[in-house]
Amino acid sequence: MALAKAMIFLKRRADLSAPAFREWWLTAHRPLAERLPGLVRHSFNALPPDAPFDAVVEQWFETSEHLSNCYATDAGRAVAADSALHTALRVRVVADAYDFAVPAVTGL
User: Fold this and answer.
1) Which of 9, 50, 61, 104 could form a disulfide with 91 if both were Cys (CB 3.0 to 4.6 A apart)?
2) 23 found inside a domain
3) Residue 68 in 3-state DSSP?
4) 41: how many CB neighbours lie within 10 A of its CB?
5) How many domains does the chain have?
6) CATH number, domain at 68?
7) C-alpha span between 95 and 75 (Å, rounded)
8) Is position 104 within any domain?
């Protein structure tokens, strides 16, 4: 079964340093986002300074309906408002995610 997945590419506001942006996301924004209905997994990927975005957030949901509807909830509106205050650009891409267990590689 595929989970519904959102990948959100984030560009911080110009007046926020990269460390301040990461600190905001990890300590203030993350707890808000983790109240989204149907969210089952969440990750923050900090990108290097030369990347076109500062971070990529991945959110996995139980169903595509949860993903489609979560931002219409009170929790979703709070997440969107907080994100808008701290970002210059957000690009969300939705995908069906297929995760596979990979055996450990030894001998490196």
Assistant:
1) 9
2) yes
3) helix
4) 12
5) 1
6) 3.30.70.100
7) 22
8) no
61, 78, 59, 65: which is closest to 9 by C-alpha?
59
β-bridge mates for residue 12, sequence order = 87
Any alpha helices (H) in 1-108, and if so which ranges? 18-23, 30-33, 64-69, 74-86
Q: Is the residue at 37 inside a domain? A: yes
pLDDT at 101: 85
Q: What are the backbone angles phi and psi of residue 88, rounded to the nearest 5°?
A: -95, -25
- State the pLDDT at residue 108: 64
- Residue 62's pLDDT band, with cuts at 50, 70 and 90, is confident
Tally of CB atoms within 10 A around 8? 19
Q: For residue 87, what pLDDT band results from cuts at 50, 70 and 90? A: very high
Note down the domain range covering 56: 3-97
What's the CA angle centered on 5, arms 74 and 105, to 5 degrees? 140
68 domain-assigned: yes
